[in-house]
Design brief:
mainly alpha; about 75% helix; disordered C terminus
């Protein structure tokens, strides 16, 4: 059951990563076109602002994908000197801490979004972009990251409680060690 959950989350996150990546490529093309237009003294205008928004969205939505692909940076000096169940316990502890931090971040993001929606806030730029257009999907990315982190944490705790802690390595281990296992 736990492995099926992890595999489902991986599939969903790969689809999200594909969509976000295509959006980022689109934004890059827009910026390149804007730079090219500047050479002939024209411009779309606002490409810097829109690129900043794109980076915020890519960052929040990319976090869950990066988590499942073991791409987050970890300092695993003690973990790397252990093996088996103790290593899995370090991994589970790191997931508990990460889940807690991400949940707090998502909770702290909400007042920013709520205030922008309530006030109808707009960017203080020539585009005057409604901030809710950017902040709502940004917030949703952080919530998704929190949900994924918590589900992975619960799945690994469940596996450890059933004596299957060693099976958690492929989705909560450290990336450098994954390479050495192959």
């Amino acid at each position: 059951m736990e492995l099926a959950l992890i595999n489902t989350l991986r599939k969903i996150n790969r689809l999200i990563a594909l969509i976000v990546g295509l959006g980022l490529l689109g934004m890059a093309a827009f910026v390149v076109a804007d730079i090219a237009l500047r050479q002939v003294h024209a411009s779309f205008g606002g490409s810097e602002e829109l690129a900043g928004y794109a980076m915020a969205l890519v960052s929040s939505w990319g976090m869950a994908y990066t988590l499942l692909e073991l791409g987050h940076i970890r300092i695993d000096l003690i973990r790397s000197r252990t093996s088996g169940t103790l290593r899995a316990l370090f991994d589970i502890f790191s997931m508990i801490v990460m889940s807690g931090v991400v949940v707090v971040i998502a909770i702290k993001c909400w007042p920013v979004v709520a205030r922008a929606v309530e006030n109808g806030s707009r960017a203080n730029t020539p585009l005057a972009t409604p901030l809710a257009w950017v902040q709502v999907p940004w917030f949703a990315g952080w919530v998704w990251f929190a949900v994924v982190a918590c589900l992975i944490t619960l799945a690994t705790i469940s596996m450890a409680a059933r004596g299957r802690a060693s099976e958690t390595e492929p989705f909560i281990g450290a990336f450098a060690e994954q390479d050495s296992l192959k």
